[in-house]
Amino acid sequence: TVRIDFTGEPRVLTVSNQKGGVGKTTTTVNLAASLASLGARVLVIDLDPQGNASTALGVPHSADVPSVYDVLIDQFPLADIVQVSPESPNLLCAPSTIHLAGAEIELVSQVAREHRLRTAVEEYLASATDRIDFVLIDCPPSLGLLTINAFTAAHELLIPIQCEYYALEGLSQLLGSVSMIQKHLNERLHLSTILLTMYDGRTRLAQQVADEVRQHFPREVLRTVIPRSVRVSEAPSFGQTVIAYDGQSAGAVAYREAAVEIAQRASAATHENKGEA
Ligand code: ADP
Ligand code: MG
């Protein structure tokens, strides 16, 4: 078993890609569950009105449940809406409800509309009685105000890329938005991690796409790739991550390896910084 030291500053990652169906939600919940199984305390913020991350984490999110909507629009503290996933006491979720669908429009006329989530996360991390090691934000498939709130709140951007045709299409638009955010709203945000998802090693296409992405982003792409696996796609219908649903399956093993890489990269980066100082 791998032992990882989670003593650093909390890391806030936004899992984003304006394309739908590339594995954002699947990656968010399974990395979160993997990190939790390694001993980290992890908060998932479900920022997609679809609420798929809340479902996969087994957290109630019907219309009457206090949610991220109340945090963004009525400035509820995050602590008032966070629930513990039945899967692990280390796995927390700020659920999304259907109300979040209206937030994109309602935010337009609000003061500090881009900073609502960041303020809430900072207050939560400063006051959480238990330490938090990771915050993972699951974004909707758009570059609207919800995603801008995630970019403004996060330190790191994690992009899941599906090994398919047009994998790189839209990426320059995404990275363009990120540099606008860096310039105007959040200097700290940077692309730290790319994860190749739904990989089918039997097809030449998947290999070609993986090679191409690695050529463009040699430092960011994780060594681990997530295979296409039925167990991964079945798990949410049981209100579970694949880590709980079938921990021995290829998908679960891959997500745990990806989580180890992500956790270890942080300590490597910290050592580099210390070396330079
Ligand atoms: P997004 O959040 O980007 O829209 P999802 O995570 O919801 O994407 O994934 C889209 C679909 O692909 C879902 O039905 C999900 O179950 C399925 N899926 C994601 N990753 C895998 C995988 N590794 N193997 C098989 N199916 C997957
Ligand atoms: Mg999703």
Instruction: Give the termini distance in whole angstroms.
Output: 33 Å
Counted up, domains total 1
Q: How is the quaternary structure best described?
A: single chain
Spatial order of the strands in the main sheet? 3-4-2-5-1-6-7
Counting DSSP E segments of at least 2 residues, the number of strands comes to 7
CATH class: Alpha Beta
Beta-strand residue fraction? 5-15%
What is the residue-averaged pLDDT?
Answer: 93
Q: Helix and strand string, N-terminal first? A: EHEHHEEHHEHEHEHHHH
CATH T-level topology: Rossmann fold
Which structural class should the secondary elements be placed in? alpha/beta
The low-confidence parts are: 270-277
In CATH terms, what is the architecture?
3-Layer(aba) Sandwich
Q: Ions, cofactors, ligands: which are bound? A: adenosine-5'-diphosphate, magnesium ion
Fraction in helix: 40-55%
Radius of gyration: 18 Å
Largest sheet: 7 strands, mixed
